[in-house]
Description:
With 525 residues, this protein is mostly helical. The chain has 21 helices and no strands. The chain is globular.
Amino acid sequence: MHPVEVFELIIGMMLAIIGLHYVARRLGLPPAVALLTGGSLLAFLPGVPVVELDPELVLVLFLPPLLMDGAWFIALAQVRRNLVGILSLAIGAVVFTTAVVAAVTHWLLPQLPWAACAAIGAIVSPPDAVSARAVLQRVRLPRRLTTLLEGESLLNDATGLVLFRFAVAATISGSFSISEALGSFVVLAVGGVLVGIATGTLWVVLVRRLGDEYLMIASSILTCWTTYIAGETLHVSGVIATVVAGLICSWYQHVVFSATVRMRGTAFWTVMIFLLEASVFILIGSSLRGVIERVGGIQTVITSMAIPVSLVVLAVIVARFVWVFLSDAVLAVLKRLRLTRRAPLGARSATVLSWAGMRGVVTLAVALTLPETMPARDFMLVTAFAVILATVLIQGTTLGTLIRWMGISENDGARLSMSQAEAAMAQAQLVTVQKLAHDAEGTLIHPMLLDRYQRKASMLATYPGREAEYTPGLHAHFDVVLAAVAAGRAELIRLHRRADIDDEVLHELERDLDLEELSAIAAKG
């Protein structure tokens, strides 16, 4: 394909993303479902070239920024509090699912070596960070469930990739060593942590010295790819390295970034992540045609693979349920024996956690790296695609309904703590203003400013615990603010259209109005 045609295809994909997101919003569907379905349909349109994904390019292009984004915004305190549960899902559930899928595959295809069956399990076992984020953005869950799902999706790829590499090597060589596999996993994990610490620390030092906001934003964006490539080059886990670097950057960005850098950087980063996430799903859908043609056509898939593939998909879903419920039962026993303070999730939360195991780009990319000499390679490709379609299209579309059926809602703990933090922040501001509002002789020189902060601190001091009482008045207050902003913006545009003010004045005053509007929207929300 000519480079110009490639560029035209990319532009067409971006336009399709916008259109499919609009359709998903109008129909009330998760965007991931619309993009995956739309990409699959577009792939079979006449004249559309077959999309051939380079798996290594897919991983290095999409995975690092999406992992960094998850690590950047995840609640680190919640991760520490739920670390055992996250590791249970990221390591235990992946290993268990791999074993279950391997056993089911060997039962269905007894002629297939056990190592090849394990390779299938490793391909489909890790839920995907992109898929999890795409679904979690549309649902409200208790903080603990959200942290478990986000934390799992950040770390389980490393487990799945290690299992896959050893399974493929064992299939081709005919030998396998458990001790060697465990030792390799430890080396990959520890090495990834060290690389992540090194690049994250280097980022902190670099950003503090750059000074220029655009250089700071650019260096922050490039850190994810730099870390991932460094980890893979050193033959350690690039996934773990990127996550660790992201956690470090997230921890220090509050003190090394100015408000301007944070606002501009977040805006750019949000748009970039949106395009990358959407591109992942539409590329997965677009690659369906190539996978089907590679295995001999849709007729071959239906007649010779439909039943075994369906059973493997069912095994993937059931294995997660079994692991989550068994783990929760063990936690309940430990709680009863007073060996842990962590309460079990309970049947309803465990059901939601089990159902939220969507697969995505990593599963497909890893499947496409299978060597041509791998036994049952076509079956593995079709199975990987079927698992992605089933988990995203079925589980992704029904997760919100399941949450409502289970009566699970976002708890109020975070809201109360935020109110208390806001009150403490306002009190600290008031103390500073009280000092600076008077001159050296003690004369009040900023009465209006002092009055403003006194009223703010007084109101927020009584707000925690009385949100329901204050909310209607606050909403009405900020509705007036937003109406005033809209009126100011309309007048500003009128003056500009009459040539009474130039573009520079328009942009400067418009920025002030934008900041005021964003502040009011955030406060109202």
